[in-house]
């Protein structure tokens, strides 16, 4: 699924979660914002390096072309391949770093981080206390790449879906879900395909 | 620094944090528990792959020898090199996985995860809501590898140190710090050298 002109939002892999007997099969949605600057959002599990490399090549990029890695939060299915991107600035939840240099930025007070004139990172805690979302102002509308703030489109009508995926603060998550539904036209959720927001329903 | 016979606790790299003008230089303590099973606790930043490979080789191991990767929490300076260990089970905070298979385990209710008869992983939230610590019963005493539940030894006498390093729930962190100080003889903190607990002071 692609949205926009420049920057283009390209969902490289739709996330999923399927419950088995004593386990869940799960991986996150992995999204490329093709700029420049080029941004990858959520790097899946540590076992997905080859898939990511191949998907970037299909988009005429490689790991060293990526300027920013953003992990919406620090769960293992969202940070697994950060290792592939030593030339990028890494934003993992509320931490911004390059090597062992950690830059000051006050996400806790609500401050947005500006990647470019069309791409910002904003704090959206709830699922964890340090979740962020990436907001892209594309020519087709505003796209919010939210990680597990939204599990999948179905949880718009059934709160049990995102709650059962784990929430460190449900009240805060409700508040930030509402904020995203008001500001965005499309949502890229953590474990399902991109969906359009029906503004009649918000 | 080494502690114990079998399993042996070997601190591969002491963590640090030093404040600059608009940034902090920081990396986590990285610890090997040499078994078998072999466990690595906290894999530093995504830029530290070669350092870790070399340190394992000096201990007659390689990445494929590691049976468990434990990240005490999902901050970027603790998960950066998980990618190097595709043959291990990964425990990142409260999530336990191999590939896209996520195993059920109720850390939220306090349940410990048994790695071996001498090594367990227990929930110790506070710094994030999903922090874990690794408890090793070595022949020299109980070693607790705690990540940022303790920033460094100095914060035993100055709470401002661990609080300023970020805490999602200070009250919970105080409670879990106390629990560790009571149960352990040694602490491997997130950003400083291993220290011995003075039981007179606890």
UniProtKB/TrEMBL annotation, chains A, B:
- Reactions that this protein is recorded to catalyse: a ribonucleotidyl-ribonucleotide-RNA + H2O = a 3'-end ribonucleotide-RNA + a 5'-end 5'-phospho-ribonucleoside-RNA + H(+)
Subcellular localization is given as: Cytoplasm, Cytosol
| Pfam family of the protein (one) | Lactamase_B
Q: Which SMART domains match?
A: Lactamase_B
Question: Where does it primarily localize?
Answer: cytoplasm
What's a BP term from Gene Ontology annotated to this protein?
Answer: RNA 3'-end processing
Q: Where is the Metallo-beta-lactamase domain?
A: 27-191
In terms of superkingdom, the source organism counts as Eukaryota
**Matching SUPFAM superfamilies, A to Z?**
Metallo-hydrolase/oxidoreductase (SSF56281)
Q: How does it assemble?
A: Homodimer.
Q: Under what name is this protein listed?
A: Metallo-beta-lactamase domain-containing protein 1
What organism is recorded for this protein? Tribolium castaneum (Red flour beetle)
What gene name is given for the protein in this entry? AUGUSTUS-3.0.2_07644
């Amino acid at each position: 699924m692609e949205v926009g002109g420049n920057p283009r939002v390209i969902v490289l892999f739709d996330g999923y979660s399927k419950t088995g007997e004593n386990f869940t099969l799960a991986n996150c949605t992995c999204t490329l914002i093709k700029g420049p600057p080029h941004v990858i959002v959520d790097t899946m599990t540590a076992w997905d390096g080859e898939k990511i490399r191949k998907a970037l090549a299909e988009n005429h990029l490689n790991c060293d072309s990526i300027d920013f890695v953003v992990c919406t939060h620090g769960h293992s299915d969202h940070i697994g391949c950060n290792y592939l991107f030593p030339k990028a600035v890494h934003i993992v939840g509320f931490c911004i770093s390059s090597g062992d240099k950690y830059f000051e930025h006050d996400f806790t007070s609500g401050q947005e981080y500006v990647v470019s004139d069309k791409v910002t990172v904003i704090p959206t805690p709830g699922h964890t206390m340090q979740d962020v979302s990436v907001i892209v102002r594309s020519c087709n509308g505003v796209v919010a790449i939210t990680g597990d703030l939204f599990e999948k489109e179905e949880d718009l009508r059934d709160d049990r879906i995102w709650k059962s995926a784990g929430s460190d603060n449900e009240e805060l998550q409700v508040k930030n879900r509402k904020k995203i539904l008001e500001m965005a036209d499309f949502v890229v959720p953590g474990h399902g395909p991109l969906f359009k927001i029906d503004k009649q329903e918000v």
